Amino acid sequence: MILYTVMPQEIVFAEQNQETNIHEQIEYKGVPLLVEMQGNEAEVIQIMSTNPMHFLHPDISPGQKLKLNV
One Pfam family this chain carries (predicted)? Predict the structure, then answer.
């Protein structure tokens, strides 16, 4: 990709340079999940399991908040 601009590269690609890794992969009740941590709560972003039965549990569906005992 060629980008013709007078703006510095640091400004153009500022969002890509930020290292905000708020997503973590955890295992909850034996199911691997991608979650967004918020204190002692985790919001489910994605179910990382390959077992189709894990997708049927309503308590770990994407968008649900999980209380974690840290």
Answer: YlzJ
pLDDT by residue (tens digit) across 13-32? 877 766 566 889 999 999 99
CA separation, residue 44 to residues 4, 7, 11, 32, 65 (Å):
40, 38, 32, 10, 6
Looking at the DSSP assignment, which residues form a beta bridge with residue 65?
43
Residue ranges for the chain with pLDDT beneath 50: none
Query: Which one-letter DSSP state was computed for residue 61?
Result: S
Q: Name the strands in the sheet holding 23-28, side by side, starting at the edge strand that comes first in the sequence.
A: 23-28, 31-38, 41-47, 65-67
The span from the CA of 44 to the CA of 25, in Å, is 10
